[in-house]
Amino acid sequence: MAPSVVTLYPFRADAIVHVPAVNQSYKLAPSSIECKLLKPLMSGGWPLWEPSTNKMVQSATVIFRRFQPSATTSGPATKVSLGHILNTMSLGKVPTERLFAAENQVIDSLILVKDVIIPEHLGQALLGAHCKKWRQACVAELDQMAARDVWEVVEKKPGMKTIGPWWVFDLKQNTDGSAKLFKPRLVAHGDRQRPGVDCTETYTPTASLMSLHLVLATAALKNWRVASFNVSGMYLYSLVDETVLVEPLVNFLPELHLKKALYGMRQAGRCWWKFLSGILGWMGFVVTEVNQLLYIFQNESAIIAIWVHVDNGVVISNLPDSMSDFKSALCAELDIKWSDELQQIVGLKCVIGEGEVATAQQQLTDSILEAYPRPVLRQNSPLLLLPVGGLIPDEDTLDPTPF
Predict the structure, then answer these.
(1) Which of 57, 88, 110 is the last residue of a domain?
(2) Using alpha carbons only, how large is the chain's radius of gyration in Å?
(3) Same structural domain for residues 142 and 280?
(4) Distance CA 199, CA 101 (A)
């Protein structure tokens, strides 16, 4: 059973374990025992140690007393809080009306943003409140595929297997919740492809954060230029090795023979990796031994390193002219969005200074804290918590003044 933050407690945490009636030796025997936590939650319960008998026990009915919600309030009541209103309310007096008026004023000042519903299928997108914007975005997606010659029309022959296309919709929002960009994507039903029958090799190397840290640390220590880029519709550049037939978008049209990869195909990631490696190899880059998605170019004066993750990339170079030449060469081959600085990559917020680099995953941290169901826990005792074993070293004596 994989550990979860919901059931994660510190090692040797105090635990009260329930003893079922069938396991009690006599009628008035204790219904619980005190134990210490040894391991995270497993399929059979928490592994615990009972100090009184020096035995191992495992139970799913456990209370960790130091991690129970405190009965104290979270802070002083404000003038518009329910507690303050109930304590101040009195029959026939003015303060109650003033408090309700202040509460209504606070509610009216809130910014209300109408949520944009993300469609689940094409029919819902074309009939919803934002049907015009979704239609324009879908047309732009199809125009992009036509411009890159993604498929060709063929007649289906007996015995030919096809996979169906479908639309996936997403929405980029501003910080206030309003819609920023409508993003439809035409993808293929890759789950219908049988490995070894409909497609052969699907392996794609993955980028590691260790290699990214290596690139950023090198740039910070040597004071090199750092840039980033994003490839628009990366899979639409990738040539498909096998024969893949996609069902028509409208039933009466012929089948579509894919010449380029579509999102959702099992081999799409590998096709894109081979295509990008071919372009970078033609430019003179070589793959490093550290990671297959870390590329290096070096001549007598210039050094360029590229770290790639799917459609995002980080570029560092010791010469500004070399960085500019690479940008021009890459833009000639791919439709990219280039930035002369690196602020965020794969969810990492990056701050690069002179001789140092700092990364933070604020979005991931916030999502974990938001999903973490425990309330804020406060220490029930005014005394400091002692280390494991209850012994304090001589050099760390307590100052009794605060107590």
Answers:
(1) 110
(2) 31
(3) yes
(4) 67
Range of the domain at 329: 122-359
How many whole angstroms separate alpha carbon 16 and alpha carbon 12? 12
Model confidence, pTM: 0.55
Same structural domain for residues 29 and 129?
Answer: no
Contact 62, 46 (CB under 8 A): yes
The answer to whether the beta carbons of residues 229 and 330 sit under 8 Å apart is yes
- Count of Cβ atoms closer than 10 Å to residue 307 Cβ: 26
SS3 267: coil
CA 123 to CA 131: how far, in whole Å?
10
pLDDT digits (tens, 9 = 90+) for 33-88: 899 998 888 877 888 999 888 888 888 888 887 877 654 445 555 554 445 544 55
Amino acid of residue 286: V
Same domain as 321, residue 237: yes
Q: How far apart are CA 125 and CA 32, in angstroms?
A: 58
Judgement on whether residues 224 and 164 belong to the same structural domain of the protein: yes
The two structure tokens encoding residue 196: 């070894």
| Identity of the amino acid at 268 | A
Which among 238, 226, 209 is positioned nearest to 338, based on CA atoms? Answer: 226
Residues 33 and 182 in one domain: no
Residue 97: both structure tokens together: 């009306």
- Is residue 380 one of the residues assigned to a domain? no
Torsion angle, CA of 65/66/69/74, rounded to 10 degrees?
Answer: 160
Neighbours of 8 (CB within 10 A): 11
